[in-house]
Amino acid sequence: MPAHRGRLSGVKIYADRFPTAVRQFLTDLLVVVWVYAAIRFALWLHDLVEKLAVPGRKLEGAGGGLADNLADAGGKVGRVPLVGDELTAPFNRAADAARAMADAGRDQQELVGQLALALTVAVLVFPLGLVLFGWLPLRVRWMRRAGAAKAMATVPAGRDLLALRALAGQPLSKLTRIAPDVAEAWRRGDDATVDALAALELRRLGLRGGR
Asked: Which of 77, 97, 115, 191 is the S-S candidate for 87 at Cβ 3.0 to 4.6 Å?
């Protein structure tokens, strides 16, 4: 498959002109750093919040262990003749209280996990939203427009269209530098005027003109 500098599947990735290409590359690099920093911060915040679950894990472990020990002790006491059932009741109540403590520890861990996830998503929404809905559409639009303009510049009809775009969108001060009556010259099909207008439009996109 043929390779073209700054192209991928017919789409321009970077401009031909050095200042524009450098600006695009630095912007892309800043976006990558921005996304990486946002993800790293979100993960750090997630881990920080998750540390709040440590008391819950200790509470669950202590409550579960205590409940098992009390239930085991109650079972042994229950084997005492005549008074076994009466002696077992306090142990069973204490074991139930310990299980409730273990359940509270599990609930606390679940709450902390949900909070950590919610904060992580909330922290990522803004920076990733800027990239997905701000930078990316503009970048893709430039790539498509630049690729189409570069392709049009290789055929006469395309250069006429680029010249027309220049007439419609370029500042009047730049147009009058090409010719005093640049619109009339374009209507006559003056090659030099058409080429100059097309080159002006390509330059606006950071591309090089020329046939």
From this structure: 77
Distance spanning both ends of the chain, measured CA to CA:
24
Count: domains in the chain = 2
Residue 27 makes CB contacts below 8 A (sequence gap 6+) with 135
Average pLDDT over residues 74-94: 63
Shared domain check, 38 and 97: yes
Q: What percent of the chain lies above the pLDDT cut of 70?
A: 84
Distance of alpha carbon 167 from alpha carbon 172, whole angstroms: 8
Check if the beta carbon of residue 43 is closer than 8 Å to that of residue 120. yes
Domain of residue 61 covers: 11-146
- 27 and 129 fall within a common domain: yes
Which of 204, 203, 202 has the alpha carbon at shortest distance from 159?
Answer: 202
pTM score of the predicted model: 0.70
